[in-house]
Design goal:
Strand 1, helix 1 and strand 2 form a beta-alpha-beta unit. About 35% of the residues lie in helices and about 20% in strands. It contains 11 helices and 13 strands. The protein is of the alpha/beta class. Helix 9 runs antiparallel to helix 10 and helix 9 runs parallel beside helix 11. The chain folds into 2 domains: about 260 residues, Spore Coat Polysaccharide Biosynthesis Protein SpsA, Chain A; about 60 residues, no CATH class. The termini are far apart. The longest helix is centred in the last third of the chain and has 18 residues.
């Protein structure tokens, strides 16, 4: 039985092609890959088709330490099929055996909305027990998929399994070991292992006991979990979908960590995320702040005063950085005013 891998693309064809090269050279031949495109405006689908036809190669600097994961190019053409959203969500052509499935979602549906289109395609096909949601700005190491399958077989109670996420630009630095711990009092997550090194000794069982979410850059999920818990919540648009999903499965499925599944992530490239407030993009700040309130209202309403206080602290930090448009943004979120996340208010 095959395994599915799902990528979401939005104006990121270069990253997506590099990711696809690493996937097709490092997974079993029967693996099927889905790329959902959230109505990109940079010609992403056309370029991905050109790559699949053998008319475009991945662009990786000669001296880059991960060039071997995506170069030389795998043999082309790769058989692919293009679907519109409605047809894809019905499972497409039941006789279709294309290795690469390209789906036009019909709009910028956000992280959950775009991925959910691919998940509905997967659920309608009924020919696999697992699907791997993988950020398009990643490359995978050899054996990454096998390690996830092995860990899920070792943990039949698990519904979601995470990978060892390493930073693409600093490959020995850990972004997260599978997942992390979400603190409801301040509304912020802490990725487990994020200050560590790739070669550090790790107790996998201890990590699995501590983590209460799996990081969204690599989410290996079972069909059983999807059928019993449902798809990702689309209310957030960006951020908190992984935490929401992980919380919803609590009591029915466990969270697992496949330590040997190594995924290299270009952290923050797509939407300007950063641990430093001065470097966060406007859209990152908006959805981070907005969704802290949304998530807390939904699951931990008793601690809302604490979250409002933490947002006031965030507003003060932006003021110290002279980010006055961010100060106004956070104030508008706190007071419930309507905000356009794509356009800073002057």
């Amino acid at each position: 039985m095959s395994t599915y891998i799902l990528l979401l693309n939005w104006n990121g064809w270069k990253d997506t092609i590099e990711c696809l090269e690493s996937i097709f050279r490092n997974v079993p031949a029967e693996t099927r890959v889905i790329v959902c495109d959230n109505e990109s405006t940079d010609g992403s689908l056309e370029r991905i088709q050109a790559w699949a036809n053998g008319n475009m190669n991945v662009l990786v600097p000669v001296e880059h330490h991960f060039k071997a994961l995506s170069w030389p190019p795998i043999p082309k053409p790769i058989r692919y099929r293009i679907y519109e959203r409605d047809e894809a969500e019905r499972g497409g052509d039941s006789y279709d055996e294309a290795k690469l499935v390209l789906i036009r979602t019909g709009g910028n549906l956000g992280f959950a909305g775009g991925n959910n289109v691919g998940l509905r395609y997967f659920l309608s096909r009924e020919d696999s027990d697992y699907i791997w949601l993988l950020n398009n700005d990643t490359v995978i190491a050899p054996g990454a998929l096998d390690a996830l399958l092995i860990r899920m077989s070792e943990r039949p109670d698990a519904g979601i399994c995470g990978s060892t996420l390493l930073r693409y630009d600093v490959p020995e630095q850990v972004q997260a070991r599978g997942g992390g711990w979400y603190c409801k009092w301040i509304g912020l997550p802490w990725h487990l292992g994020q200050l560590g090194r790739a070669g550090d000794r790790v107790d996998v069982g201890r990590i699995e006991r501590r983590m209460n979410y799996v990081v969204g850059a690599s989410l290996f999920v079972s069909r059983s979990m999807l059928e019993k818990v449902g798809l990702m919540c689309e209310d957030y648009f960006l951020f908190f979908e992984d935490t929401d999903w992980s919380l919803r499965i609590r009591g029915r499925f466990a969270l697992a960590y496949a330590i040997e599944s190594r995924v290299y992530h270009k952290v923050g490239r797509s939407i300007g995320t950063s641990s430093l407030p001065s470097r966060k993009s406007y859209i990152c700040d908006y959805y981070n702040m907005r969704n802290r309130l949304l998530f807390t209202r939904r699951y931990f309403p008793a601690v809302l005063p604490s979250i409002y206080f933490s947002l006031m602290i965030a507003m003060l930090i932006r003021a110290l950085c002279c980010k006055w448009e961010r100060v106004r943004l956070i104030w508008q979120i706190i007071t419930g005013q309507k905000v356009n996340p794509c356009h800073p208010v002057r």
